Amino acid sequence: MILDGKCPKGPIQTSWDRHRFDLKLVNPANKRKYKVLVVGTGLAGGAAAATLGELGYNVEAFCYQDSARRAHSIAAQGGINAAKNYPNDGDSIYRLFYDTIKGGDFRAREADVWRLAQVSNNIIDQCVAQGVPFARDYAGYLDNRSFGGAQVSRTFYARGQTGQQLLLGAYSALSRQVKAGTVKLFARTEMLDLVVVDGEAKGITIRDLITGEIRTHVGDAVVLCTGGYVNVFYLSTNAMGCSVTANWRAHKKGAFFANPCYTQIHPTCIPQHGEHQSKLTLMSESLRNDGRCWAPKKKGDNRHPNDIPEDERDYYLERKYPSFGNLAPRDIASRAAKEQCDDGRGVGPGGRGVNLDFSDAIKRVGEHTIRERYGNLFEMYEKITDENAYKQPMRMYPAPHYSMGGLWVDYNCESNVPGLFVLGEANFSVHGANRLGASALMQGLADGYFVIPYTIANYLAKTKPGAVKEDHPECKKSVEDVKSYNNRLLNINGKKTVSEFHRELGKIMWENVGMARSEETLKDAIKRIPALREEFWKNVKVTGKGEELNQQLENAGRVADFLEFGELMAKDALHRNESCGGHFRVEHQMPDGEAKRDDENYCYVGAWEFKGVDKEPELHKEPLTFENVHLAVRSYK
Amino acid sequence: MNLTLHVWRQSGPNQPGKLEQYDAKNVSPDQSFLEMLDEVNEQLIKEGKDPIVFDHDCREGICGMCSQVINGVPHGGQERTTVCQLHMRNFSDGDTIYIEPWRALAFPVIRDLIVDRSGLEKIMQAGGYTSCHTGGVADGNAILVPKVDADYAMDAAECIGCGACVAACPNGSAMLYTSAKVAQLAALPQGKAEAAQRVCAMTDAMQEAGFGNCSNHYECQAACPKGINVKFIARLNREYQKALFK
Questions:
Q1: Is the pTM of this model over 0.95?
Q2: Which UniProt keywords are given for this protein, alphabetically ordered (chain B) (predicted)?
Q3: What is the pLDDT of residue A78?
Q4: Residue A32 in this model has a pLDDT that exceeds 90
Q5: Which of A47, B161, B170, B244 has the most C-beta neighbours closer than 10 Å?
Q6: Is the CB of B35 less than 8 angstroms away from the CB of A453?
Q7: Going by C-beta distance under 8 Å and a sequence separation of 6 or more, which residues neighbour residue A224?
Q8: Do A137 and B62 touch (CB under 8 A)?
Q9: A348 is in which domain, residue-wise?
């Protein structure tokens, strides 16, 4: 099937404005007749639930944490992009649009990206009005800094906790609506199934994580804001509870999964220290504003970094990409770091690390200024590594961080299942094959505050409110299915723990479907993942019962989904016989090691249809056309 | 290193709880405290026993989910550190460690180390926001915010809502938590308009949710993993007094 993104035709500059006018509206008196279910309360979900509640819809919002304020958007550090051009350095909506398309290695839809760039400015205004304490200069104006993949300073920030502050802004708007009675919040619940009635999304089945109760909530539309899937690698910068479960269960009910192989490996994370580590910690990209990446020129140079003289250091990003230098985009900076380590010039235990050095910046602007800019990051680094980065370079290594792929959506953020909308990291739409820094926060809030309020009305206006009730046979069936699935997990009573399986899967994924992929490693993964999955269903041990708080059962369900999803990810990576952005196939590279795209054959979105576990998924394509940015080799030299 | 743990086990809100003893063996100093507990749990699962349940999520000290009292101190006593960022190098071989949930009237235990913190939500819902609508707001630079005010607001806004301040307070008060939001919004022009209603509504909600009052022990500041300063409580009191005349 050829998929249609339903993007507006005509000049891109006015595309969103014309489209908004063409969308149907729901009149204020009718809005309260509709119920919308929003799953996830991060930037996308929190913003969407608050805004839809304010408009007058009945909203039910769900999150697995004990509070809506804890979604993993909170961990984003560096900042949020907007085309305000406050610094007068040449920024514009067009430039943000261009940088994002190019940064995504020409694998995103033009119209979606244009809209994102256009509403980026409204986001900053909105957050300021909510009381988000963005950094200000001495005159009281908003301050900016630079991020990777851009030559302008367009990133707004709140110390090293921008994600936290933006999320708390959305959470405050959400709290206001809870008080007003328009939003009902269901914390400590996890979505385990999508209810589809006559081909349309009309409800979700959730598990109450405290009592273990499994029940269905029905609504007139479902909005998934359930984040990304890089915990498939086991070790990642995601929170422990982040999973593909909501998206995967929706996928099994018919929603197409687009570009699952596009995963972002972030260049600056604290290297792994041991076998029993549970997660990796990111150090903000903003550090590359002042930190210089280098590796020793000599192989196996074990001297203390401060003892290695200047002329024996290789500032590899500055050498390879003189015009962007240390602010090269993430996929490129990650591969460059790996290249140094593969060449035997890595630092730290096992040689899996490069230096991020602040000594020049400290000499230039003083330790005080560096502390003011990144104090909390340096503190966090010291807690984890026991090293003082004011005195010696940080050690960094790339780690799984973000997923550009996600459920397929059209221009209205609606999936191929009518009534199922997908926002933020959970969808695939704007980042192409690589996301630029400070763009995830922008997308989450754009979708939640400024896209879904318009587009969901277009769907709701065509549906009869309250058509499906809790006693509908599909709801009952869904509850029974979830119960029996969980019972299966509880009754295996094997010998290996859920974490052991997760760790094994992570190892397969990282080695075979990680930063560098080849036909051989991918085929190997496609062979080994189903075998591991089979073993899981025979030999996993989940203690406790279903009708109680049971963290083992929660994790077992998530890992079971990763064991199916991982295979699709490998298949997508194998089918995409080119390199682009974060998807690097070693067979396809330029003589200098850069990613080599194949626009003739792969300039499309690959969206997969679920056909059953152990069955071949079916590929559907949405061709990508570029009318405003010319397809070109992506260069940061 | 090898450690002896005494961990609070309680099967439900209305069940009696008690400290149970466990051994943590071959603990690496580079492990985090929660990773050490993960290993203990792996062992328990293999033995067919119920693992210790505890709240945790981001494991990088920002989500505010983790909540354990370690050797009598919320978050374990390392300055400005959450449990998930506490590393085992702060302990020594042979140590005995006591691990308990947050203890406060307003935080009933749900199970083991997990408590119900929904009282904190009620406080936020009472007024922890500016009543702006989505869309139709002024340009971000239309209203200037002096840098000192923005920095002050940010100092307060760093609160992660973990509830350690409540657990540390002899009165079980949520005053530091409440004051951080009151002060942040009162310091900014965008929040000033509603400052009086906000401080009254939030302190009322705090009392209704079963939190105690502040009697200046300052244990909250000492326990706060983000170093939120008690000066914000003074600000809350000032805002409250001002509100009485409105």
A1: yes
A2: Iron, Iron-sulfur, Metal-binding
A3: 87
A4: yes
A5: A47
A6: no
A7: A39, A40, A191, A246, A247, A250, A407, A420, A421, A422, A423, A426
A8: no
A9: 265-399
Report the residue of B57, B82, B197 to disrupt the A interface, i.e. the one with the largest count of A CBs within 10 Å: B57
The total domain count for chain A is 2
Instruction: Identify the pLDDT of residue A350.
Output: 87
CB contact, 8 Å: B128 with chain A? yes
Condensed to tens digits (0 to 9), the pLDDT of residues A490-531 reads 999 999 999 999 999 999 999 999 999 999 999 999 999 999
Check CB contact under 8 Å for B185 and A187: no
Inform me whether the pLDDT recorded for A274 exceeds 90: no
Per the structure block, which two tokens stand in for B188? 């900014």
Helices (H), A104-257: 110-130, 162-180, 245-252
What CA–CA distances, in Å, run from A72 to A42, A124, A271, A440, B118? 7, 20, 21, 12, 19
Q: Which pLDDT belongs to residue A122?
A: 98
Which pLDDT does position A374 carry in this prediction?
Answer: 87
Contacting residues of B for A277, CB less than 8 Å apart: 31, 35
How high does pLDDT run on average in chain A? Answer: 96
pLDDT value of position A461: 98
Contact B154 A278 (CB under 8 A): no
B32 touches chain A (CB under 8 A): yes
Is B193 an interface residue toward A (CB < 8 Å)? no
Query: A279 CA to chain B: closest CA distance, Å?
Result: 7
What sign for the dihedral angle of Cα A210, A212, A216, A222?
Answer: positive
Q: A225 falls in which pLDDT band (50, 70, 90)? A: very high
A569 in any annotated domain:
yes
Are A270 and A395 found together in one domain?
A: yes
CATH architecture for the domain at B117-244: Orthogonal Bundle (1.10)
Nearest-angstrom CA–CA distance, B130 and A173: 8
Q: Which of B45, B57, B147 sits opposite A140 (nearest CB)?
A: B147
Length of chain A: 637
Domain regions of chain B by residue span: 3-111, 117-244
Per the CATH hierarchy, to which homologous superfamily does domain B3-111 belong? Beta-grasp domain (3.10.20.30)
